Amino acid sequence: MLTYVHVLKDARLDATIGNYHSQPQDDNWVVQALTEAARLSRTRSTIRIHTTESEITNAIRDLRNKSDEYGELARSLAKSGKSFVLARPERESPIWRDLMKLMKDGKMPTPSPLVTYVVHTAAITDYERVYTGVVMVGLGTIVVHATASTGDDLIDAELNMMEWVLQVGGGGGRIDVHHSTDGARRIWEQADHLAKQEGTHDLGRSGTRLRSLAREAFRIRTQIQAARAPNPLFDRFARFAASTCWADGNIL
Question: Residue 185 and residue 108: Cα distance in Å, rounded?
Fold first, then answer.
């Protein structure tokens, strides 16, 4: 099987999205792989190829040297204004590098058939701002988003990420969520109790926030529930996204 991860920056969502799929591998799998990579990319674009396969690395070098072996592929690329460049390993984001290795080894974790998206959020603070990351996995996509907000309330920041998830998810299905902070996790674990709480104290504010999220989820026909256990890989990715935001980096 050939597995592809098409990674692009979505300015509208302010997120990095990896669309992944697999297809049977034929005898001429190197050309097949590069043709599919070109198909997934925009016209007149430079396509950075991250690969674990030496045959693909050699093919890209041969294309650059105008080898006759890949003449048909070269003509197709020239017609659409596309070109390949090999991505340097040291410039690969750890998230996508780890995912490629997992897919190659057949160990990519996927949601159960009953779950539409698995969501992990993480938040850290320097007591002036909160830096939050979210990883949303399902329907053949991995969405990574990070943002910063004023203040130091980690619980509130992680729940803000759920508002973003509901907007991006499109409605319908079930979302299993795991938060990095105990307080945010308990909101979903104790949802029946908290939904009845009112007032300005901590429980009242949590209840108000929960009801707001529940109304929005109901409106778009989405069920939210606490994940039974975190997925260590996606939990690490969410923490990495939050840390990257704190470092003011853009390496997702």
Answer: 25
Predicted TM-score (pTM) above 0.70: yes
Pick from 126, 185, 181, 173: nearest CA to 154: 181
How is residue 247 written in tokens? 């470092």
**How many percent of the chain have pLDDT more than 90?**
40
Amino acid identity for residue 196 in this structure: K
Q: Which of 2, 10, 3 is nearest to 143 (CA)?
A: 10
Distances (CA, A) of 182 to 128, 130, 187, 204, 219: 21, 16, 9, 17, 27
Q: Mean pLDDT for the chain?
A: 85
CB 67 within 8 A of CB 28: no
Name residues whose C-beta falls within 8 Å of residue 20's C-beta, 6 or more positions apart in sequence: 3, 4, 5, 6, 99, 103, 108, 140, 141, 142
Residues 164 and 179: their CA atoms lie apart, in Å, by: 14
